[in-house]
Amino acid sequence: MTAATTASDRTVTLREVGPAGRGTRPDEVVVAVSPAFAGHFTKTIVDVPHVEVLRQVLAGIEEQGVTARIIRVFDTADLAAIAHGGAKLSGSGIAVGMLSRGTTMIHQKDLPRLSNLELFPQSPLLDAPVFRMIGSNAAQYAKGESPQPVPTRNDQMARPRWQAKAALLHLKEFECIQAGRPAVEVEPVFGRVGSRPLA
Amino acid sequence: MTPVDPGRSPARLVVGVDIGNSTTEACLAVVAPEGSITHLATDLTRTTGVKGTPDNTEGALKAIRGALARAGRSAGQVETVLLNEATPVISGLAMETITETIITESTMIGHNPTTPGGEGLGVGTTRSIGELGEQQPGEPVVCVVPHGWDFDDVAATLNAAVAAGVDVVAAILAGDDAVLVTNRLERPIPVVDEVSAVEKVPLGMLAAVEVAAPGRTIRTLSNSYGLATVFELDPVQTRQVSPVARALTGNRSAVVVRTPTGDVTDRRIPVGELVLHGAGKTLRVDVDAGAEAIMEVVGRAQPLDDARGEPGTHVGGMLAQVRDTMADVMDIAGQPDVPVSEIAIRDVLAVDTFVPAEVRGGLAGEVALENAVALAAMVRTSRSRMQLVADLVSEGLGAAAEIGGVEGEMAVGGALTTPGVDRPIAVLDLGGGSTDAALLTREGECTAVHVAGAGELVTKLIDSELALGDRDVAEGVKWFPLGKVESFFHLRHEDGTVEFVDQPLSPHVFARVVVLTPDGPAPVPTRHGLDHVRRVRREAKRRVFVVNALRALRQVAPGGNLRALEFVVLLGGSALDFEIPDMIADALAPHGIVCGTGNVLGTEGPRNAVASGLVRAHAALLAEEARCRSR
Amino acid sequence: MQRGACHSGASLRGPTESEPALSASPPPELTTADYPLSINRPELLHTPSGKPITALTMDAVVSGELSAEDLRIAPETLQLQAQLADASGRPQLAANFRRAAEMTAIPDAEVLAMYNALRPRASTAAQLAELADRLERAYSAPVCAALVREAAEVYARRDLLARPTADVG
Amino acid sequence: MTTTEPRPSIRTELLESRPVNLDGFVEEWPEKGLVAMESDFDPAPSIRVEDGRVVELDGRARADFDFMDTFIANHAIDVASAEASMAIPSAQIARMLIDPGVSRGEVLAVTRGLTPAKVLDVVKLMNVVEIMQGMQKMRARRTPANQGHSTSARDNPIQVAADAAEGALRGFAELETTLGVLRYAPLVAIALQVGAQVGRSGVLTQCALEEATELELGMRGITAYAETISIYGTESVFVDGDDTPWSKAFLASAYASRGIKMRFTSGTGSEVQMGNAEGKSMLYLEIRCILMAKGAGVQGLQNGSISCIGVPGAVPGGIRAVAAENLVASMVDLECASGNDQSFSHSSMRRTARLMPQLLPGTDFVCSGYSAVPNADNMFAGSNFDTEDYDDWNTIQRDLQVDGGLRHVREPEILQARNTAARALQALFAHLDLPAISDEEVEAATYADSSNDYPLRDVLADLKGAQSVMERGITGLDLVRGLETTGFHDVAQSLLNVLRQRVSGDLLQTSAVLTPDFTPLSAINDVNDYAGPGTGYRLAGERWEELKKLRHVTSATNPETEVG
């Protein structure tokens, strides 16, 4: 490819900007990430860097002309709780919830917690283009449009290859839970390896 | 109804059985000697085999047994089974696409991406983003970005080029990145994205990129004189590019590249002739002339004796197949052969439609709505195998079975049991494959016609015009009203009313256009809005049922004059539709006709007309006999 | 105690040539040698509607004499199988069959409703107590009732009861 | 000397490309329960009984019991013998398990009084061969058997019927199905039942669904048994699954009250997979499940990690732990359907090795779902073995002279069975006024391999038909009547005989299956009487002759021909 840099050069840190509040803009999607996302962990189960996950989800939202707000959750690593919590804070009622290993869910505030709009349970099958589509779909739901659900893939042999690693990552993420600590709004600070992050 | 008096000469248990194209209906009744009728039960089942053939026996027996079970009677008590004189009707459907849009030399990009970037018009020479560094300052450039470029890198590269003095006026992107890139540019430019075949964009050519503000459409590239201005065209050249302008009308974004002989053409696809025999004439019409022309010729060949299409075309194939199926159906061992002349196409309905099709030579999967003609045809023979069915039913049930009357007459008879109607009465049976009409005059004369095209054609039109590719979904769109799920707790009906629900709706219908089935809302997989889907649905119904209602009624109306009709009763499965009866009634109202959905026996709705008509006719016969005896 | 809980259907059965009606005599003491009952002791087996198992013939099916009810297990049969489970050293299996014998009288939908009521945080203490009482009173099901009461006690200790809703109190 | 770039050897490259390296492996993390069976964080065995009541269990006082402790203490442990059994050194109990001189009954007299930690302490002493020796004796039913999956990626009932018929003919004693589109369940369950009875009379069928529908199909006599009743080893995961030991025990009785055979499902790894192992080893938690099942009075258990096999499969000793969990189920006298039912490894060698601890000693069901359809059609997300492995399986049985429940069947018989199953279903659907099955579909079913080999069905019509089966209240009896009146007398009779079994309750006893002549065969009348070499189930006589046959065996009489 002729791209000037490869994706792996990029870095991201999530800078806390304050407590996570309820949004008022109807044109926003909340992206809610788990305790260890882009912190303790830096990439998904199949080594997609979190910076790329975040860039693509945000790009998918931005391309639809919708704004995004990122929230980090500390007190749970349960995807439904993260995504639903995010949706309740979202001005549009739509949120994308993400775990460090890549498992992702689009949620809506009026749905029961254990339901969802779209769920991507097979973290080993999620790559950058899928994350872009997830962001795009979330933004389209926020606009009241009817996006075609992102095609889900399936692989019977994912179990022998990834099941145990997924469990391990899940346990590690649980370790990062800080019970009782409220969610915070964060700002992504993107940078390049070897260069100072642009503030 | 008069109660049966068992003391007098015995009342008779009779069953009227109507074998229709799709359903078989039974009407069980006790007929007293003087002709009074006590209705006991009705039943309805799927018709087995093609109507009018021995395969019908199974369904007929099933309907009879079903009615008997409901009434708690046994087969042994039945005196007579009355069957309708039904002639086989076989219908077929075919569609021909008759136009094709072709782009040559990659002249134009008109796929209308949902999220283009920037706004305004940029005219310059196409250059690949990789070559921007070598570009001399001054000359306006339209930057072409292939697959694999990240949006941040594209923006950075364009900003750097502009800073170096390169006059970048617009960009064409492979990925869905237009908003992302424009948001990051220091100098805003129009950007068109999602051009999947971006590598085919000719480089080094003069090109114009236009993006309109959200909610608006382009003004320059969709205007022939706008193109002439941008590309400094002479009148001859302007005439040549006018198809380009037309193709881009209504878009929010577009790209036009000026190449030596580039062109957009709207080609007609020859799909051969339709040859119609009738009224002692042989008339020919090109299928690609469209429905209006075809129907005009069909009108001149009435009554139609046969029709044939070009071998190798969909229409030709369909017409041949319909005929072959009929020949197979009538070919029964031990029965006299049916002359080929009797197996002929007796009606044709052509409907103009359109099908979304990918444009040949397009760079971004452009889709054009191509014109198409849908054709329904019908074969009918006067040779019935009903006597065979009657024999088999008699054998299977252990009761006498006879042909009790002709279908159209019986339908009228049954329809007369609808409260509030009187002679002259016409019935319209809105079926799946054909639309049938029958008229009973004040004097008791009955005439009947069958015309091609009914419910199945409607489904096909909906399916292709909405590009659903799924007959079942199209059926759903046809049968049920639409709604839009606006939140988990409310949906907006197609009439604009809002309905709130207590239980949250399922996530799979969230924010979707849905059909409101009895089992709850079901999503319609389309990007079109509710209004568009509704329009397509109603148009399809109008073009088939309203057109056919008028066509069929004119054929039975004395002198073809609709004003001579007084009561029109709608029967058949499609009479249960939630809007077709109203649409037909509206169309007939100007002719002073009372039109509505039948309510046979005051209880059965538009069902069971023929079956109960058979019982009525039988009762009348018995009464007549009784009168003769008593004299 | 179990022996007293005879099914009312017994009287419908009428006398058979070899076996007196079940209500007239206590269930036989079975040993593992009696298994399988369908082969070794078919005379002990009846449907809840009182037909002997030998009446479940193809002719009876085709003529419509049999209904789905005839293919259910009778509580007496479950008690017999409980004896066999005890005789083969499986007291828990036997206890399960005894609960099952009690449950034959409960309609399908209510069985499912009761199961749902036993899910975590689905019922209040009062609701579970009511369920146990209903099992005992309406269905003469003391063994099932005991299981529900035990659950209620454990649920209370482990915070698995539904909290009473606000409007109730 | 020049420095070279580090590069892999050609051999390393070759090894890297071996399928086994596509499998995932992880290090142990005992603190979080990511450990197979040897963890310092598992409790030490202990018991105290007061007034006929367990007041302390594995170091925990009754007041501190979680609900698993409570249920096990109240229902699973025999208080009369518990203190005596717990006093026996673990090594001695382990020896009893493998000592041919100690009968199965004598072992059971001890195990009924053991706590979960004590059971773990016993099996931790056993290596995999000893585990197999134990299984050989402790398996409840003398005769081993196998279970198959018959599903379709398109939920095509004709495929399910044809593959069920072939599977039954090849030897599966039980057949299980499930759905992609759940609403298809009634049609597919009917197809499975019809196909199974065509293939071999007396085969038992089930349809894995959510509890309510699964129970309803069973109550109606459309299916014969149930299996997907999941239980878990920690309270938090159990509650997460919206159940408790009491709700599941109630459900077990509900099935029995309708005369329906049923077993629970559990397996190592599920708790750690859900992130709530409470720091206990996978096997310890599974033993808690097994004793909970025992206490509920359910006759059997499907275990062997099942859908979590990737977790124990990735840690050291994990497959030994899986073999041990099967043994524990058998040593507390439960029927054991022993896993081998989920896609496990990219490596054929590893897939086979994982099977040995169940195949060699024999279990009640060696696989609790051998895929009797190609894995791509397996709606349980793929099994450890599928239709491609039939000949390998048969050859392994013949090589080692072990009975894995299957056999080689000649092509004409298979085609006959598939064709009959499809025709029977065609006739039955027509009789019941369900969406028609065409002759073309019957033809396809006769020769097909996968769902791609069948004409597409009208799904909407099928779903309407499926719904009407439920609405019209169609039962097993209607199926019998339909098959009889359409001339499929044998199939009808066979299904009627299966339905009659629910009146007798004989299939409710431990490890029950039905022989082709409808004799219930269970741990009561087919007791495992293994007592050392030359005793117990031996592959001999007619059955051994059957298993000697393969697809290609050169004739000794005339080496220019093949027998079989």
From TrEMBL, chain A:
InterPro entries linked: B12-dep_deHydtase_bsu, Dehydtase/Dehydtase_re, Ppandiol/glycerol_DHydtase_msu
Region (Disordered): 1-25
UniProt superkingdom: Bacteria
Polar residues biased stretches: 1-11
NCBIfam families: PRK15042.1
Protein name per UniProt: Propanediol dehydratase medium subunit
Natural source organism: Geodermatophilus poikilotrophus
TrEMBL record, chain B:
Coiled coil spans: none
Ranges annotated as spanning the membrane: none
Span of domain DD-reactivating factor swiveling: 103-264
Gene3D superfamilies referenced in this protein's UniProt entry, alphabetically: 3.30.420.40, 3.90.470.30, Nucleic acid-binding proteins (2.40.50.140), Swiveling domain of dehydratase reactivase alpha subunit (3.50.30.70)
Protein's name according to its UniProt entry: Diol dehydratase reactivase alpha subunit
Species of the source: Geodermatophilus poikilotrophus
Domain Diol dehydratase reactivase ATPase-like: 285-617
Automatic annotation (TrEMBL), chain C:
Extent of Low complexity compositional bias: 15-24
Organism expressing this protein natively: Geodermatophilus poikilotrophus
Pfam families linked to this entry: Dehydratase_SU
Protein name: Propanediol dehydratase small subunit
Database matches in Gene3D superfamilies: Propanediol/glycerol dehydratase, small subunit
Region (Disordered): 1-35
Upper classification of the organism: Bacteria, Bacillati, Actinomycetota, Actinomycetes, Geodermatophilales
InterPro entries in alphabetical order: Ppandiol/glycerol_DeHydtase_su, Prodiol/glycerol_DeHase__sf_su
Automatic annotation (TrEMBL), chain D:
InterPro entries linked: Cbl-dep_enz_cat (IPR016176), Diol/glycerol_deHase_lsu_sf (IPR036999), Diol/glycerol_deHydtase_lsu (IPR003206)
Cross-referenced Gene3D superfamilies: Diol/glycerol dehydratase, large subunit
Domain (Diol/glycerol dehydratase large subunit): residue spans on this chain: 9-557
Protein name: Propanediol dehydratase large subunit
Molecular function GO labels: cobalamin binding; hydro-lyase activity
Species for this entry: Geodermatophilus poikilotrophus
Signal peptide region: none
